[in-house]
Structure formats: C-alpha cells, structure tokens
UniProtKB/TrEMBL annotation:
<dbReference type="InterPro" id="IPR011055">
    <property type="entry name" value="Dup_hybrid_motif"/>
</dbReference>
<dbReference type="Pfam" id="PF01551">
    <property type="entry name" value="Peptidase_M23"/>
</dbReference>
<feature type="signal peptide">
    <location>
        <begin position="1"/>
        <end position="21"/>
    </location>
</feature>
<protein>
    <submittedName>
        <fullName>Peptidoglycan DD-metalloendopeptidase family protein</fullName>
    </submittedName>
</protein>
<feature type="domain" description="M23ase beta-sheet core">
    <location>
        <begin position="179"/>
        <end position="273"/>
    </location>
</feature>
<dbReference type="InterPro" id="IPR050570">
    <property type="entry name" value="Cell_wall_metabolism_enzyme"/>
</dbReference>
<dbReference type="InterPro" id="IPR016047">
    <property type="entry name" value="M23ase_b-sheet_dom"/>
</dbReference>
<dbReference type="GO" id="GO:0004222">
    <property type="term" value="F:metalloendopeptidase activity"/>
</dbReference>
<keyword id="KW-0732">Signal</keyword>
Amino acid sequence: MLTIRLMSLLTLLLNVPVGNAQNQKAGLSIAPKSVSVGQGEVARWAGNCLRCSLEKRAWSPVNGTCYYPVDMDMKPGSYTISRRTTGGKLETATLQVTLKACTQEDLKNFPKKEYINVAPQNQARAAKEAAVVNPIISYKTTVRPAVFDLPVGKPAHSLPKGEGNFGACRTFDGQPRDRHTGQDYPVGMGEPVLSAGNGRVLLAANHFYSGNSVYIDHGNGLISEYFHLKSYSVKPNQTVTKGQKIGLVGETGRVTGPHLHFGVRWHGACINPGFLLIDPSDIPQVK
C-alpha cells in the first residue's frame, strides 16, 4: 500500500510543469496578455517600449508606447503582437481582430456623371495617379522618427462630428465602388484645413477622384490625407507644423458637395482617423 501511494505521488509531481508548480507555490496565476479591436481601429501596449511588431512587420514606439494599427480590410482572427522593452525583455500578446460591419452608403442621382461612366482617358489618369500614391501610403521597413504626439491636432479649427462613413461600402447611382478610406466632416466651403501634426508634405496635387489632395508624413509611418480641397497652399518636401493651414475646404473630385475628407495611413494600414483624435488612454490596451 505504501509503495502504491509513493508511485501515485511521484506520477502527480511528474505531471506538474515546473513553472506551474512554482506559481502554485507562490499563489500566482499568469494569464496570457491580449487585446481586442475592430477592423480599422488601433490597439496600444504602454510602458517603456523599444520595438513593436505585428506578425512580420516591426516599427518603433511613439513616446514609449507601442501602437498597432489594424487595416480596415485585415482578416478577422487572432494575431501575435510583441514588444521589446527598454530593459531588453521580449513580451508577446494576442491581438484579436473582430469584424467591423460595412456601412452601406448609396449615393443616388450623383451630379458629376463623369465619375459614373468613367471615360478611358480618366481611367488611365486615375491609374497613373494611383501608381504615385500607393508607394507613399504603403508599409515601409525604414521610416523617419515620429514628430507627432497623440492625440493629433484637429484638421479644422471647429471640427464637427464625423459623418460615420469611414470604411463605408458605396454605390454611385447603383454602381459599386471601392470602400471609403477616410472620415468625412461637414466643414463649410472655404474653411481652412489644418495639418494634423508636424511633418513634411509628400504630395500636393490635383487627382481625378480625390480632387485637390495633400499627403503629409509625420514620421513613424503615419501619413495624413486631406482630399477634395478647393485649393492647397503647400508643396512637396515643405515642412509644416501642427495646426498650420495647408488649404481650404472644397468640392473637387468625386463629391456631392463641399466637405473635408480626412484620412490616415499608419504603417500601411488604413485606419479610422478618429482614433488618433482621442486621448491615447481611450485606445484599447493590451492587458
């Protein structure tokens, strides 16, 4: 009987992992770290970060905090994120990406018919412009250091509530088109448009779909976009400061009327710019 008891005790001890045995002895329970965000949103991991990574992509933190932008088309599911602390410690967590329902936006009786049945020359023009823009907004392994803080500045002096159409699935007179990549704000014609942060102008040009457009690099892979402007007052490679006037609200390009289209690309991800206008403490955090 004593031999059987000793064998049972030995079997039990052999089946308890050393780490778990030590944790149980100390009365500790270590839960895996995780954070859940929707498509087009942002997660953060605060505290003495030196390097951040999401799957095979990596970048530097902003003021010691790792931010993980999730593209609006990122497939829902579980992803591995990690960070290297200033003390040299490597930590991992799970990023749970949830489906964000696509709001349907049907634009009927669209006034600018040249954007409904697009002529071959305009199709060629748009393709040429996209070939210039796509490398600007894509993920890059090497980027300039961040010259911005969060939250970023408002792109207008008096910024009304957004129209909630970021990522909207749109049709024009019943014809499906690409999803909406920014947030529209009902700012009046001719109102000043402001840079969301310090940075350098990457592109300022008139494009077929986005009209008069400005793209600004704020470092750390953050690119802000301002579309449909009446006019712009900056040029490529010009340095701008947070709150600086860069143009006027207009209705150029494919629009139904004057408004401010404000968009953001961060490490190549197309995200809802509203997440960069709120206090960082309100952004979902790894726990």
